[in-house]
Amino acid sequence: MKWLKKIFISSVIIPGIFLLALFVNYRFISEEGSPKIYYDLDSLTPVEVGLVLGTSKYSVSGNINPFYKNRIDAAVRLFEAGKIKYLIVSGDNRHASYNEPRNMMKDLIEAGVPSDLVIPDYAGFRTFDSMIRAKKVFMLDSVLLVSQAFHLERALFIAQRSDLKAIGFAAEFPNNEGSFNVIVREYFARIRMMLDLYVLQTEPHFLGEKIPFLPPKTE
Fold this sequence. Notes:
The protein has 219 residues and is of the alpha/beta class. The chain is built from six helices and six strands.
């Protein structure tokens, strides 16, 4: 019955080990990042720079993506409450018809954030790129990240290993039909992140010249 044993190993044991690894890896990253995530504005000490992590403005159905909308709303709340002075918007800008930073800038400005206080990062193709570029390109020592909590956990893990002092402010997690798929993708995104950090020694898709983050002088 060796063939039964082989079938059992290939169809049960190996997939089981893989699923266990997915779960353990997810929990490990969550446990490290969750203490650095804030949900209440009043509990936050004001910081100078906030960084909004990008996502598509529109869902597949053509409606406004609630993950995007809630991140913008959270960033506006932080600014209006005086918890941040400047905002970097980092996201994908692979071609002219898809530009996350441009959309975020436009919506933040329309919501009342002064245009000179919003700085685009057009090369934040992935969360990994956004975090590395915050340190190596914008030369930040500390930052307040804005996204949903599950996403912040991964971003904070990268920041910790990039000598970037970071905390996160959690945007509301939407309860819609696509939310489950987002969490499933996050399991695999965390595996890829671990490979990037510890196996592949990945660098961002584009670094370019350093852009020291020097806010305008005020008189």
